[in-house]
Design goal:
By secondary structure, the protein is α+β, with helices and mostly antiparallel strands. It has four helices and eight strands, in the order αβββββββααβα. The chain has a domain of 123 residues: Peptide Deformylase (Alpha-Beta Complex). It has a five-stranded antiparallel beta sheet with strand order 1-2-3-6-7.
């Protein structure tokens, strides 16, 4: 089994760079297969998305739990998204909490379109088009931002919502009541 890669943290220059498109004929290359395997092996069990730049790789690839089944408690495999893009997004926006594996312990409210139509290639090179809503749409947008050198804190409109784990846990516990 592969050893998980180190997830780089806020402040590392790779997180602020645009990632390179994967040439379609290169998707089945050993280099891209290794990046995909490293992403799958590195994403923690409590993580719902991890982009190649977060493991210091320059490619437009991320792994994310974006299937509808994930949000209905059915077991699913995370999706590999290569050269992802948003084709269209809803005018409805929603503000919700986001965190990041590259900024452990930090949370903030981010406003994003509630639903998006997306396109990407899976790890076999098959083109996928999907309509995502809710959490799945948010995760896709968050990971796509990583490929463009954008961090969730850049999208925050109200920095007073930037909080640490302990305070986030209190808020989340109150929201459940």
């Amino acid at each position: 089994m592969l050893k998980p890669k180190k997830i780089i943290q806020f402040g590392h220059k790779t997180l602020r760079q645009n990632s390179a498109e994967v040439p379609l004929g290169y998707i089945n290359s050993s280099e891209i297969k290794k990046v995909v395997a490293d992403l799958k092996n590195t994403i923690p069990e409590n993580g719902i998305g991890l982009a190649a730049p977060q493991i210091n790789q320059p490619w437009r690839i991320f792994v994310a739990d974006i299937s509808k089944e994930k949000w209905s408690d059915a077991p699913v495999q995370p999706s590999i998204c290569i050269n992802p893009k948003i084709i269209s997004s809803s005018s409805r926006v929603e503000s919700d909490w986001e965190g990041c594996l590259s900024a452990p312990g930090i949370w903030g409210k981010v406003e994003r379109p509630y639903s998006v139509k997306v396109e990407y290639y899976d790890e076999t090179g098959q083109k996928i088009t999907a309509d995502l809503g809710g959490v799945a749409a948010r995760v896709f947008q968050h990971e796509l931002d990583h490929l463009n050198g954008v961090l969730f804190v850049d999208r925050m409109k109200d920095m007073t919502t930037l909080i640490m784990d302990e305070e986030f846990d209190k808020i989340r516990d109150n929201e459940r009541v």
